Structures are given as C-alpha cells and as structure tokens.
Structure prediction request, 206 residues.
Amino acid sequence: MVNRKNLALEKLFKTPYRGNEKFSDSDRNLDFTVLDFWSWSNSNLLENTIRGVLAEFIVARALNIETDSRVEWESTDLSFEEVKIEVKSSAYIQAWEQKKLSTIQFSIAPTHFDNTHPDFKQAPKRHSDIYIFCLFKETDPHQINPLDLSQWEFFVLATQTLNERVGAQKSIGLNSLKNLDPKIVQYDRLQSTVRSISSDLKNEQL
Prediction:
C-alpha cells in the first residue's frame, strides 16, 4: 500500500495518445476510442478555450516546434530557439449566439507562476520574451473556418515593450495593441518574424 503522507507528486508525462487507443473495463476493450473523446470534447474550434489551444498549435507548427504534446502548466506556452513565447487569441465571432461582433481583447496580465520557483512567492511578471497575439479575424459567419489560416492574423511583440509601455495592465484592446507597433503578419511569415525579433533581443543582451 502506498503511504499517501509521504507520496512525492512529481510532474507526470505520458506518451501521447494517437487516437486509436480503446477505452477498457478491466481486461475488456470497449467500442470507443481516444479519437471519439477528442471529437466529442474538442470539435468546436470556436469555443474560447479550445480556440486558445488551437492558436498555440498553429504557432507551434509555424515555428516548426516539435513536441509530443502540449503541456498545460508551464510558465510560458512555447519555446523557440531558447526564446520563451506566450500565445494569446481573440476573435470577432464566438461559439455562442451574438447580437454583434465581439470587441477584441487579449489577456496580458503578469502572473505569479514560474516553474523555476516551487514556492511561487516571486512577484508577478510576464515570463515570456515574446508575445504572439493571434486574431481570428473572419467576420462572416457563412465563411468562418478556423482551419483556414488566411482567416488569422498574428501580432508579434517583444514582452519588454509591454512591460515598458503598459506596465501591469491585465488586458489590451486591438487598437491599443497596434499603437505598440507590433509586427503584423500572416501565417507564412510568422517564423521569420519571430526569428528576427528573437535575434534583436539577443543582440540587446550582448
């Protein structure tokens, strides 16, 4: 029997599922799979939480970041050539019924979380080097398709610009974001843009 009082709860990692794995009941395989679960739980890509994860996936693919699976509780979303990246998303059209298009807002709140400090007592801050704001810009509900990357627009900005210009502000609107002069690009230019900003940041540290 495991002594629960002395149990060390380390971060768990499991080899990623591929979709064809079946659920079981003891030694009896059941007739539904991990793919069935994914289809049931994650098919509506317009849902806020799912769209946010989708944005991370799109950025990871644009940057050719190869990881087995997404890790939920990290201080930043992605790492690209030793540069930490935070990904945020917003959209005009939501999954629910709307009377008008949504106002674009992105979360930029500093946080206490930093997995290098187990006691989490450090002051709140933005832990990334670069923010990528992913705007799903389609406004026609008859044309909307989150898998069509031409319907997305990406705003790339060094985190230090946020720190210097907006301080501890928790969110930012689209016009205010544009006033910070981010690099605004489509999917096919995302990697080169991130690499350019990353290079500038490294040169500033020399």
